[in-house]
Every structure is written in C-alpha cells, then in structure tokens.
Automatic annotation (TrEMBL):
Naturally occurring in which organism (per UniProt): Roseiconus nitratireducens
Cellular-component GO terms for this entry: plasma membrane
Protein name: Membrane protein insertase YidC
SMART domains named among the record's database cross-references: PDZ
Organism superkingdom: Bacteria
Pfam families in the record: 60KD_IMP, PDZ_2, YidC_periplas
C-alpha cells in the first residue's frame, strides 16, 4: 500500500481506538481437441509445419547447420493450451501459451467446488463468460479472428444450428448476442448485460470465408461464470487495470551469459540475441485423455549471433507439464552447447507478471517490513540466510523513477555469505493468490541459482498518482555460470505454483509465510478458526459473523456491565466534579489534584470503563485482518451470489457512482471509492443512535461541546471506514445492536440507590474538629481544604546538616 493508504490505515485505527475510548467515558465461487493450429502470419513469413502428433519436434540443429541457425523473430504466431475448463476433466487450470516467446499468456483457475461451481471466479464482473480467443481483427472481414479455443469453455461446447460443435481456430466471430464485434474487448462488452447460464447466439464465419455462397454459422453457447484469470496480459485487466502497466508474457527464458558477455543491468536480454518475447520457438504437445497436459518448446541460436558475444551455437528448450487436481506446473529448462568447444553459459528465467490485482483500491495487505507498506502485487522470496522477504511494488516504482538506468532491485547474488543464494521460493504475492517458483519436491532449495532481482513491468512515468498500488511487477533469476562441454546441457527442473492462498495448501508447499496477519495474528487465527466452525454449522458467512459477534460480546459481558456501573458512578460524581471545576477555574493543577482526591476518597477508578475498549481493539484488528486475508470469505455472499454484498471480503457495492467526483469516488484516487456502500452508513446510524440513547444530558457548555464533537467524530468514522469489507460492517452492526440491548438490560439490573454517600453527615470527625468543630463541611469542601492546605514550614532553629570540608587534592 502507498504511504497515503498506510498513513490512512494507521490513523484510522488510532482514531477508532480514541473514539471508542472517549465514547466509553462519555456514553457509557466434455473433452475437446487442443487448439494448436497456426493462427496468423507475421512479417509475411511462411508458417512453420506442425510436427506429427506424439513426435518430438525436430530441432534446428537437425534441420540446418548450427553455424547458420538464428533465433527467428519472423513466422506464424501460434497459441496452445494445457488443461481444461470442463469439470469432467478434473483440471484446476487452463493455461494459454504462445510460441512467440514460449511463455505463458494466461492462466485461468477452473477448479470446482462441491456444488460444481467455479471455486474462484472474477469478482469484478457478474456477466456470462464465452471464452478467451487471443482475438484480433480479421484481415478480410469485420470480425474477431479466433486464435485459440480453450477446452471445456462455452465457445468449445457451443453447437451450431447446422450441427457443428465448437468454435475452431481460424474462425471469425462476426457478432455476439446480436452485437457486431471486431475485437476481444467488444466481445466482452457485448456480454456485459448477460448472466451465467444464459444462452447467446454467436455468428461465425468458418475459416474466415464470408461470401454470397457461404452463410455464417449460428452457434448457441451457454455462458458460464467468468473464471479467475490469475495471470493475464495487462490489456485484459478490466476495471482493475491502470495506465502505465505493460503487457508481457510470463516466464520468458533467454541467455544470461554466453561467451564473454552478460546481460547489462539496465537490459533484459543480450543485444545480439534480442527480445525473448519476439523469438519463435517450435512447439509440440502431448495429450492425456484428449486434453493436452505437456508442451515442449525449442529454439536455436546460431553462430552468426553467438560470435558477436564470443560464443558458439546453443539450443534452448523448455517443457511445461500440469497434473489434474493441482495448481502446479512442472517446468524443465535446458541449455545445450552445440559448439565444438566448452563455453561459459547461464540462462535467465523471468517470473510471472500480470497477476490479478483485484480490489486494489479497497483491499489492504500488510507488509512484514515495519515502515513499508505493501502493494496489490509484491515480489516475495525466501533464502536460507534471510528468511521471508517482501519487496513492495511501490518500492520498485519509486526506485525506477529515481534510478531509471538501474531500475531493478537486486535480491541476492553470487559471492555473498553462506545461504544467501540458497533460494527456497520466489514469486508474486497478491491479496488472495500467489504465483511462485518452487524447487523440486525433494530439494530444500533451488540448485545452481546465482542471482535474482525484482523488476517493474510498467512505465513509471505513466503510472498515475494514488494508483501506485496496482503497478505490475515481476522478477528474474539467473543461473550460476557453468562451463558446459560440447554436446552437454545445463538443466534445471522446478515447479510453478499458481493458485489460492489457502493456509493448508500453502503449508504443504512451504509457503505459509505468504499469509501475514500482522501484530494481531493470534486473534486473527483464533477468530478465523471460530468463524469457519460456525459457517460449517449455519452455511452462511454473514450469519456466522453475527454469531461470532454474539459469542465475543457475550464473553465480554461482565466487563461491559462493570463499564456500565462505572458510567453510573461517573454520573453521580458529576455535580461534585462540577463544583471542583468552578472552584479551580483558572488552576488546572489544583483542579486535577482535587478531582483525584475525590475519586480516591470514594473509591472510583475513571479508567475502569476503558478496559473493554482495550480488549476490543485487538479483537477488532484481528477480525479485520482475518476478514481481509482469509480467502474463504472471498466471493462469499451475504444473501445472493450475484446481488448486493456478494463478496464479504469487499465493500458491499450497492451502487456505482465512480463517474461522479474523482476526488471522492475515483478508483484508487477517491476517499470513498467508486461505489456507494450501504453497510457503513447503517453502522454510523447505529453508533449515533447509541450516543443519543445512553449519553447523559449535558450539564455545562464543556460537556455539550464534547457531545457535539463525538457526533462529528462518528460521521468521520463512517468516512474512514467506508471501504472496509462488508463482513466487518456486519460485525459492527451486530455489535452495536448487542450494545443497545446490553445497555438497556444492564440499566435495569444495576443496584438501586446511590453508590456513594456524599451527604454532609459522613465526615471524618477528626478532620471536623481540626476545622474548628463547629460548622459542618461537605465532603468536596473538605477535600478542597485538604488540597489547599500548605505543608508545614521548616523550624527556623533546625540545625543544618554539616557540610564536609573540601577534600585536599594531592599535588
């Protein structure tokens, strides 16, 4: 979070505590063919032939002389998928790859809950989902060229009126739900008013052919919920996208060192080799039960390029594999020396980027760094020596602006202390999800990793103020430089975890530190466990929060009753305290002494009413962190999954008003946020109601002013907490209703009569005789007299203590 948000939260918490303390004193979520066809022709180059199914792709070294082989940037761009969205296939992910760069373009989470619904869907859209097409404007007709069709998506399962099943690569989508489309964004716009489960008509030109003799195909597609696209290009970020973020494939691979040359600090690749995102790799997929689960990419960099860095030809290869029912991607990297002499080689593996930044304008992560906030996406890693570390996206943005020639922040490098580069994990941490590299299961840390650095995937000058929390970030790791003999390879096997931050799942992979509750973690874990227990009983988190509130407030009832008794005692002492205030109108020190003397004499402790507030603060902060961090509350509704308050871990979002006034209603830039929320308003109304019901009538101008300040503070509190999770507002509402009922009940059960006997008859007899024995003084008057009484003067004839003669110093 940025400094403004961090300061805001700290001030809000302090404000709330001060407010509650003062208030206590004053008012007591079927298999299809894999889409791996050539999609488009770039740079007018002929398409590369597709290898036969099940065959290993021929490497460049087998087809041509390695001395002439060059990592090509011309040729057809093709898209591939691993996994499926069909529930019967059992995959938790649907991953889209691109052969230009051999990187990951998109990861969609397709796991299902026991009811068959998506376990994790996008929360910023409630419209129906057709599929992802990597679409672009077709050449010969106004429409969207289909470059990929994910297995099990509504587009893959759509049925045409003429009997064809499923859209295919090369088709052109002309219209969706009756609206003409020319881009992927227009497809999404055409679906904005639809709902999951609804059937829409998709007008398609098969193979892109549209003429007088070929009529378009009309497909009927049944829409589904929108799966969470955990990794996506920046242009598909939706409402959570901000200006300045860059689109880049994830997990790119290139040479970090070859011959005598290494990548410069301000660059991402060796200049002769070029941008890895533009290089064409050959690809081959392997399927299991008709669903592709393995893909291998290869590319060769020949001597024409390698000679420029003092090296010889090399081949880069990489393999991705996924397993049904997991959020893991197994990755194998291979760097082969095709030359005739040994050469020093190292690879660079970039990390994922474009991780979902959902809710960045209201969600608040806590950084383990004491004086540094967290962004919506941060780089986290753990080494044997340093432990778990977090590098904030805002910190990377600040560094990129300050030192543009050296924007990356080094994490560790070779040659450091023992354990410095023993990397246990490194990844991107979001609010409820994580995408991170892990070593193989049997290895405690990565082998042969030389250095790592965090980087910004954004134009720092384009990122707008107050939207810094949503910046795109990533990282890279470089292998140790190895002397690779001819024909030998430098290899690395690792895993990529891309999934939810579920505590049990993270602990299984040694990622438990990804969940950070802050200072009140004990209360957060305790209350979170109790909340889940209650939800398993009642089946609704909203009701569970209410029951949790009742349990917490019920356990604190004895303290609350004592606070009510304390408030009644305060009211009884009010007249006497007023007399003291009048007596010492201009003497603050004397007034304080007299009031303390009175309170001590009658046995009254004014701080006793604050004790419940001290106990409620860690409970409040612990529950706030539990509701903000716990993924089980994400997309859990209060009433309806597609209606108001459909996500208890976010504001209730009753009405969109983001176009009204940016300073107050802007996404990220406004104090209130882009939605009108009802629950915080109800909270404020209940707080004011409590004040009016239980605050005693003002006895003087000072008390009246204090009560007015309390009302204004309550209104400001509603402003400060306008974007808190709906679940927390439910806690406040239930707690306020409990408080109203509790105070009403306690008032009826308080002991009758007065707690203090302040009559003139109860006076210390000895003190009365010293006062003259005649006229009786009230207790307050007598206490005032004692405070005013001067200390006895020292007798004049009292001998002074003999002073020691000065000691004689040795010469």
């Amino acid at each position: 979070m940025d400094r403004r948000t961090y300061t805001f939260l700290v001030a809000s918490a302090a404000f709330l505590f001060f407010y509650l303390s003062l208030r206590a004193l004053v008012a007591p979520p079927q298999p299809a063919p894999v889409a791996n066809q050539p999609a488009e022709l770039e740079d007018d180059a002929p398409a590369q032939p597709e290898p036969p199914d099940g065959a290993e792709p021929e490497s460049a070294s087998e087809n041509e002389d390695p001395a002439n082989a060059v990592a090509s940037t011309s040729g057809s761009t093709e898209w591939y998928t691993l996994g499926s969205m069909a529930p019967s296939d059992g995959y938790n992910m649907l991953i889209t790859f691109r052969n230009r760069g051999a990187g990951i373009e998109r990861i969609e989470l397709t796991a299902r809950d026991p009811n068959g619904r998506l376990s994790y869907r996008r929360i910023d859209t409630r419209s129906g989902y057709l599929g992802y097409f990597a679409g672009q404007l077709a050449d010969n007709v106004d429409g969207v060229l289909v470059n990929v069709v994910g297995p099990g998506t509504p587009a893959d399962l759509a049925v045409a009126k003429s009997g064809e099943v499923g859209l295919e690569v090369g088709d052109v989508i002309l219209a969706v739900a009756g609206s003409p489309v020319t881009s992927e964004s227009e497809i999404n716009d055409a679906l904005k008013e639809t709902n999951p489960g609804q059937t829409v008509t998709v007008e398609v030109a098969r193979g892109g052919a549209v003429d007088a003799s070929a009529s378009p195909l009309l497909f009927e597609a049944k829409l589904t919920e929108h799966p969470l696209d955990l990794v996506r290009l920046a242009e598909y970020g939706g409402d959570d996208q901000i200006k300045g973020n860059l689109s880049r494939l994830s997990c790119l691979m290139t040479l970090a060192r070859a011959g005598r040359k290494s990548i410069d600090a301000a660059s991402r690749w060796l200049p002769p080799v070029g941008d890895p995102a533009k290089q064409i790799w050959t690809a081959n997929t392997q399927a299991e039960q008709s669903v592709a689960n393995t893909i291998r990419f290869e590319t060769t960099i020949g001597s024409d390029v390698m000679e420029k860095v003092g090296g010889q030809p090399v081949r880069l290869a990489r393999t991705y594999r996924i397993t049904p029912g997991t959020y893991l991607v197994d990755m194998d990297l291979e760097l082969t020396n095709l030359g005739d002499a040994p050469q020093e080689l190292a690879y660079r593996l970039e990390g994922p980027n474009g991780i979902t930044a959902e809710g960045w304008w209201y969600s608040n992560k806590i950084s383990p760094n004491l004086f540094e906030g967290a962004a919506a996406r941060d780089v986290v890693y753990q080494t044997t020596s340093a432990g778990h570390e977090l590098v904030s996206g805002m910190q990377l943005l600040k560094r990129a602006k300050k030192t543009p020639k050296d924007p990356d922040q080094g994490l560790f490098a070779e040659g450091g202390e023992a354990g410095t580069n023993e990397l246990r994990y490194i990844g991107i941490d979001a609010q409820y999800f994580a995408v991170t590299y892990l070593p193989q299961e049997a290895e405690p840390y990565f082998q042969n990793i030389g250095r790592a650095a965090a980087e910004l995937v954004a134009d720092p000058e384009e990122v707008e103020r107050h939207k810094e929390r949503a910046v795109n970030v990533s990282f890279f790791v470089d292998s140790e430089v190895s002397d690779v003999p001819p024909g030998e390879s430098l290899t690395q096997s690792l895993r990529l975890y891309a999934g939810p931050k579920e505590p049990e799942l993270l602990e299984q992979y040694g990622l438990g530190n990804f969940i950070y509750y802050g200072w009140f973690s004990f209360f957060s874990r305790l209350l979170s466990g109790l909340l889940h227990f209650l939800q398993n009983i009642v089946g609704n988190y909203g009701v569970a929060i209410i029951l949790l509130t009742v349990i917490v407030r019920g356990c604190m009832f004895p303290l609350s009753r004592n606070a009510a008794v304390n408030a009644q005692k305060m009211q009884e002492l009010a007249p006497e305290m007023k007399k003291i205030a009048e007596k010492y109108k201009d003497d603050m020190e004397g007034r304080l002494k007299a009031q303390q003397a009175l309170q001590k004499r009658v046995g009254f402790n004014p701080l006793a009413g604050c004790l419940p507030m001290f106990l409620q603060l860690p409970i409040f902060m612990g529950l706030y962190r539990a509701l903000s961090v716990d993924i089980d509350l994400r997309q859990k509704p209060l009433v309806s999954a597609n209606g108001w308050a459909s996500n208890l871990a976010a504001p209730d979002q009753f009405l969109y008003w983001g176009d009204w006034w940016d300073y107050f209603t802007g996404r990220g830039s406004g104090w209130l946020g882009p939605y009108l929320n009802l629950l915080p308003i109800i909270v404020v109304v209940l707080f004011i109601t409590q004040q009016k019901m239980f605050m005693p009538p003002a006895t003087d101008e000072q008390t009246a002013m204090t009560q007015k300040v309390m009302t204004v503070m309550t209104l400001f509190m509603g402003l400060f907490f306008f974007r808190v999770p709906a679940g927390l507002c439910i806690y406040f509402i239930a707690s306020s209703l409990w408080g109203i009922g509790e105070r009403t009940l306690v008032k009826k059960t308080l002991p009758s009569g007065k707690h203090f006997d302040l009559s003139d008859d109860v006076i210390d007899a000895k003190a009365t005789r010293k006062a003259g024995g005649g006229e009786k003084l009230t207790l307050t008057e007598r206490l005032l007299q004692q405070v005013n009484q001067k200390e006895p003067e020292q007798p004049a004839d009292r001998p002074n203590k003999r002073k020691r003669p000065p000691s004689k110093k040795k010469r």
